[in-house]
Each structure stands twice: as structure tokens, then as C-alpha cells.
Amino acid sequence: MNLNDKLILAIDFDGTIVDDAYPKVGKPKLFAIETLKKLQEDGHRLILWTYRCGKPLEEAVAFCKSKGIEFYAVNKSFPEEQFDASKSRKIHADLFIDDRNIGGFLGWGEVYQHLSNPKYNQKTPPKKKGFFSFLRKNH
User: Which run of H or E residues covers position 95?
Assistant: First the structure.
């Protein structure tokens, strides 16, 4: 995947866009609103991908809209998609941005760098030492 391409980004709400205060709407995370707006301006499709439903979901969508963020879809792959219990609820996206990732949430500045700066993603990976390297003594 070339990160200069326009991506479909599935983004969690609680703990990612805002501090986790479920079922209330928490305070926006540092640079969340600005980064999401910039990602939209860059042409990426944003999908709100959250556990919320009913009134708490409506409040999350309204909060984002009041900040100038309108999602391509909410808890589905495309706006016209209808829920069908016979099919998987997993949505189609190129990347999922969530505070529950292994290693935690990177922060919005780091997310934007990963998505907008190809050189940022070309860092030299650390040299692999092998699974049992911890048994070797360093002399």
C-alpha cells in the first residue's frame, strides 16, 4: 500500500478522538480534530468505527460534525450499507486507528506523519537478532 494513495480510515471515537468518558463525550485528544480535518482535506475517507450505538452514537457524530468533521460512513463500510445479521460486521478499511492497538495509541501527530510523509515510513528497521539471542552473552 502506498501511503500517498487516498485511504479509507476506520477511526474509533472513545479514547482515540476524545478522552474516554463513555457514555458521555470526553474532551478532544490533542490534535485529533485538526488532524482529522487535514486527513479529510488530503482526500482520505474517514469512517467512524465505534462501539457506540443509539443516543451515544448520535452524540458522537454530532460532536464531530460541530467540529467540522463529517464521516464518509458510521459503523459501516459505505453510507448505503444496510445491517445484515447474516454477514460479518467487520468493515472494509485500509487502516484502523484505535487506542486499543497493541502498543496503544500513537498520538495524532504520529498518525499524520505516518500517513502523509513517505520518508517517515522508510526508517531503517532495527536489526533482527533472532528469537534466542537473549541467551547469548555479549563479550
Answer: strand 95-97
Collapsing DSSP to helix, strand or coil, 46 comes out as strand
Question: What is the percent of the chain where pLDDT is above 90?
Answer: 60
CA nearest to 10, candidates 103, 77, 88? 77
**Which residues constitute the domain of residue 100?**
8-81+88-122
Residue at 127 is within a domain: no
Q: For the residues of 87-108, what is the DSSP string, one character each?
A: S--PPP-SEEE-TTSTT----H
Interatomic CA distance for residues 6 and 15, integer angstroms? 25
Instruction: Provide the CATH number for the domain around residue 102.
Output: 3.40.50.1000
- Does the pLDDT of residue 113 top 60, yes or no? yes
Domain count, the chain: 1
Report DSSP state, residue 129: -
